[in-house]
Amino acid sequence: MTGYLQVSTTVDSRDAAMNLLRSAVRAKLAASGQVFGPAQSVFWHEGEIGEGEEWQIFLRTTVERYPDLEAHLISEHPWNNPEVTFTSIDGGSAPYSEWLSKTTA
What is the rounded CA–CA span in Å between residue 26 and residue 8? Predict the structure, then answer.
C-alpha cells in the first residue's frame, strides 16, 4: 500500500487547531484528523530557547493531495514558518484506504 500520508503541525490553542483541521477537511485536502493537547514543548525560536504549550494536529491525506494540503496549512496557520511534516502510512485496511482516496478526491 502506498500513497497515503499522516500530516502533522502544531499551534498554540485548541481553537486554532480545530479551525485549521476543520478548514482542511472541509476543503477535502484531508479525509480526517484529530487534535491532541495541550502538550508541553521546548523549542528554538529566533535564536533563543523557549518553552510553551502546543496543540498537535494530525491529518490523513493522499500523496496527490499533499501539496495542496501543505499550502493550505501554511497559508492558514497563525504562525510564520510553521512545522508541517508527514509520515507515510505503510499499511491499513483496504476499505479505509479506499475511503481516504474517495474522500479527498
Answer: 17
Cell numbers given for 27: 476543503
With a CB cutoff of 8 Å and minimum separation 6, the contacts of 93 are none
pLDDT digit string, tens, across residues 51-62: 999 999 999 999
Strand partners, 45: 48
* SS3 letters across the chain: CCCEEEEEEEECCHHHHHHHHHHHHHCCCCCEEEEEEEEEEEEEECCEEEEEEEEEEEEEEECCCHHHHHHHHHHHCCCCCCCCEEEECCCCCHHHHHHHHHHHC
Task: With both helix axes pointing from N to C terminus, report the angle between 66-76 and 14-26 in degrees, rounded to the nearest 10.
Answer: 140
Distance CA 46, CA 98 (A): 43
| pTM of the full structure | 0.92
Euclidean distance between the first and final Cα of the chain, in Å? 18
